[in-house]
Amino acid sequence: MAPCQRIGILTSGGDAPGMNAAIRGATLVGQALGAEIFGIERGYRGLLDDAVARLAPQDVAHILREGGTMLGSARCKEFHDRAVRDRARAVLGKHGIDGLIVIGGNGSLTGALHLADPAEIGSGPPLKVIGIPASIDNDLALTGLSIGVDTAMNTIVEACDKIADTATAHDRTFIIEVMGRDCGYLAMTSAIAVGADLALFPEAGKGVDEAVEQIVATVLAVRARQSRKARRVIVIKAEGVSIPVDQLKARVDARLLELTPDADPAGIETRVTVLGHVVRGGRPSAMDRLIGSRLANVAVRALRAGDSHKMAAWMPPVVLPEAIGTRSAADPYCWLVDLSAVLVETENLLKGRSPLARWRAGAFDDIGDALLL
Questions:
Q1: Which CATH number goes with the domain that contains 231?
Q2: Catalytic pick from 15, 50, 98, 137?
Q3: Which DSSP string do the residues of 227-269 spell out, in sequence order?
Q4: 123 and 76 in one domain?
Q5: End of a domain among 239, 261, 280?
Q6: pTM (2 decimals)?
Q7: Catalytic annotation on 137?
Q8: Host domain of residue 33
Q9: Beta strand pairing call for 233-238 and 198-200
Q10: What residues of the chain score a pLDDT lower than 70?
Q11: What pLDDT score does 267 carry?
């Protein structure tokens, strides 16, 4: 397998803190190994626009501590078309790029797999690709963590701790919505980390009526406590739960009024906070800087070794058969896993069919009742 001589780097899809660490790591390691490194701006959109430029060590010297991505990112729905991918391959060929590192989530890695499909390339210049998982939702399979997850979790925990202060002072119930359209990982794990009273996430498979009743039952149980300090309620909701958070609050308020008609109208107050894109931002944590740097090191070395159609993974949560993944010789905590297998297992994860998805959904339920004691 011929080593890649010219390596392109692009970041695609939703940005994640730590992407810059991966860009920096890939650039510095690639240069040290004798490869030429090119940055592609705005993901696949920028690739189609020929927004390609050489990257030197001085270009990435100070980006480690910055959130977002210095290369920018964009959605590119038309990349699903074969003709569009042909244009992208022509741009890569024009610059002599024979290896590509794609830093992103499920859609981005799917695009990489198709872009380097030998059946599509035909007699054209060969292209090797290695993916690096970057998604604050932690919704990619066969990697223990994706870039951005740790920073996002820390942001949510800090915000919830502050909200809990005012909730405690006023005996209020707060419904806090966090990101997670298709995967409720952030809602599940942050609920445990902040000591929330309830978590709502799509993997639980519960309907809107059941969610409303859960919140109401939790509020009434907590308010029955003797200690005033313990009468605040924190509910973490993933955005993927189907009902909009303002409608959820309205239904909870109506149900509470129905069940406690004689209570002081001002006695049970609910508030809503939507953290939204705040969760994406901020300087990356030490963990995300390390994960980004180490995965980039593994990815570049894989391309220089002539490998392709793999994803650099951080400590996969399952024991992988050798046909799917192998531990990286460059880093004992990193693996190279088959990119096709990653995408198949990611679909299983998002559809709730994988053992990991079932474990995630059940883990919070196992401790849920204990939170109300």
A1: 3.40.50.460
A2: 137
A3: -GGG--EEEEEETTSSS-HHHHHHHHHHHHHHH-TTS-TTTS-
A4: yes
A5: 280
A6: 0.93
A7: yes
A8: 6-148+284-351
A9: parallel
A10: 226-230, 262-267, 363-373
A11: 66
